[in-house]
Amino acid sequence: MKSTFIAVLVGVAVAVAAAPVITSEQIDPEINAKIRAEAENNSQIMRTMHYLTDVHGPRLTGSPNFKAAAEWTVKQMTEWGFKNGKLEPWDFVNADKSPRQGWLNERFAGHIIAPVKDSLVGEVVAWTPSTKGTIVADAVHLVPPTRPTQPELDAWIKDVTPKIKGNIVLVGAHTAVRVNVTPPALRRDDDDLRRQMDPDAPPPEAGRGGRGAGGAGRGGEPPDPTRLTAQAVNTAMNALMLSAGVAVRLNDAGRDHGQIRAFQNNTYDVTKAPPTVVLRNEDYGRISRILDNGTPVRLEFTIVNQSFPAGKSFNAVAEIPGTDKADEVVMLGGHLDSWHSATGATDNAIGCAVMMEAARILQAIGVKPRRTIRVALWGGEEQGLLGSKAYVKEHFGTAENPKPEFSKFNGYFNVDSGTGRIRGASVFGPPEAGTVLREIFKPFEDLGVMGALSTSSRRSGGTDSTSFNEAGLPGIGLSQDPIEYQTYTWHTNLDTYERIIEEDVKKSAAALASALYHLAMRDEMLPRFAKENMPAPPAPPGPGRGGLGQR
Ligand SMILES: [Zn+2]
User: What b/e sequence results for 447-465 when a residue is b if at least 16 CB atoms lie within 10 Å of its CB, and e otherwise?
Assistant: First the structure.
């Protein structure tokens, strides 16, 4: 079955590659055919995935795992023949500029030991402390008040403090997660995408998928400033847990099928939070129901976390040097760091593996690019695009304050939406930039790439291509089939090697290798906003809305 399928696929590839593509772009069908064959027959993606996930996952910024993974990518790209491979350091610091420590969970075990004996499924919250060995204690269920005033919260804290001293505390009501009888589609519809990618299509109506227009309609009432936000109550809960000497704090994952998303203690300081675990919704529900029915519960936890000297993290870079336009650069990449509940496969080892592969394909088929092609694998994305922002600042500056490399930059492709095949692109620049990419991707419509659009938004957030947009540089974000990204794998304990669809990522690497090649070979640079048309830089975010991108 497989061999006939491949024979048909290659047959179609050659037919498609040979078919003349009507564009004003200089498309090279022979190179495209070579790219397709190399991508299909010699793919290294799943081998790269094995090392980034099974061997070096999870890759939390600041942890030894992250550094080992970054060193492995540089060594591998160098073995493939790339040049100038290195780790570029950047400052990993807290809001007060003090050096931020690295952190990793090494051991976790949780058990209910009365009234029944059973194992618990949980994930430790990052940058929280270990337990002092194995601890056993009674469980207490606390449901803090919602949007209280400060005096209301103080009274509540005074009342509950004696009840929680030295115990294990469930914080928050159990979330009733309903069975989803209308799960979202795993793949985008071609026609929908064609319409979306059509620059002449009317913009979506305000309020329906429109951005911002519905602002006023969202809830309407300005928040009552005398009432505390959920984040303020959460911070007060951590202080209460510490002052009451709580043994372990338990949070509800609030998702179905044992999914757990565990993020970080916002202070990044293990002395400012108790040992904290996110329990799967099913275990949190079981314990809170037993407690709420008046039966005492005893729990046992063993948590071993390590902190690491930090203050520095890295971006991993390597390149295929250009020839006659070697001082101009086309970049591609994705973030290498991940959260810690699984091995960070769809977020975002796969983005790194696809980008390494796209460049490897060009190297393997012997391309001599005119412009330099540079792969960049970022650290610190999950903590706010830290690595890519540091890189843009270090190398390019901004449109308002450019560095010499600013004018030599010819686009940065970014993948960061899971395993789904790429379906389209969004480039920061004038409409002409969208046209160039649309035409370059046209020969890959059979692999699912439906087009490209341009954007003039310099707002950063969401993923690393926006670090370039924010500076006024053509960042290129790639949209993908959603597959299980938002429903199962994004930042969860299910995000492992097994969630990768090899056929999809091979297609993405082939289309990207071609786009890279054609941007590296074309006479003109990718169209960019001229100084006089450059959109204004975004206003800095207000208090408490620091640039946590996180996608
Ligand atoms: Zn991501």
Answer: bbbbbbbbbeebebbbbbb
Architecture field, domain 102-176+226-308: 3-Layer(bba) Sandwich (3.50)
Å from CA of 320 to ligand 1 middle: 25
The token duo for 459 is: 């707002």
Rounded to 10 degrees, the C-alpha dihedral 396/398/399/403 comes to -40
Q: Distance from the CA of 471 to the center of ligand 1, in angstroms?
A: 20
* 465 CA to centre of ligand 1 in angstroms: 11
Neighbours of ion ligand 1 (CB under 5 A): 347-348, 416, 551
- What is the CA(356)–ligand 1 centre distance, in A? 16
Angle at CA of residue 245, ends 240 and 248, nearest 5°:
90
Contact partners, residue 345, CB within 8 Å, separation at least 6: 49, 52, 53, 57, 419, 489, 495, 496, 497, 498, 499, 500
**Centre of ligand 1 from the C-alpha of residue 13, in Å:** 31
Number of other residues whose CB lies within 10 A of the CB of residue 115: 10
Distances (CA, A) of 105 to 126, 129, 183, 380: 8, 9, 33, 18
Spacing, Cα 159 to ligand 1 middle (Å): 42
- Global pTM? 0.91
* C-alpha dist (Å) from residue 56 to 126, 344, 416, 493, 518: 18, 10, 19, 16, 34
Question: What separation in Å is there between the alpha carbon of 274 and the centre of ligand 1?
Answer: 27
* Residues 61-102: tens digit of each pLDDT: 999 999 999 999 999 999 999 999 999 999 999 989 999 999
What is the whole-number distance in angstroms between the Cα of residue 499 and the centre of ligand 1? 15
* Same fold yes or no, 5-97+312-533 and 102-176+226-308: no
How many residues does this entry show for the chain? Answer: 551
Domain 5-97+312-533: homologous superfamily in CATH: Zn peptidases (3.40.630.10)
Q: Could you tell me the distance, in angstroms and rounded to a whole number, from the CA of residue 463 to the centre of ligand 1?
A: 7
Burial annotation 259-271 (CB, 10 A radius, 16+ → b, else e):
bbbbbbbeebbbe
Neighbours of 6 (CB within 10 A): 13
Q: What is the 414 CA–ligand 1 centroid distance (Å)?
A: 10
pLDDT tens, residue by residue, 405-451: 999 999 999 999 999 999 999 999 999 999 999 999 999 999 999 99
Compute the distance between CA of residue 346 and CA of residue 489 in angstroms, rounded to an integer.
7
Q: Where are the domains of the chain?
A: 5-97+312-533, 102-176+226-308
Residue 349 Cα to ligand 1 middle (Å): 9
> What is the CA(357)–ligand 1 centre distance, in A?
18
Residues 474-504 pLDDT 10s: 999 999 999 999 999 999 999 999 999 999 9
- Compute the distance from residue 484 Cα to the ligand 1 centre, in Å: 14
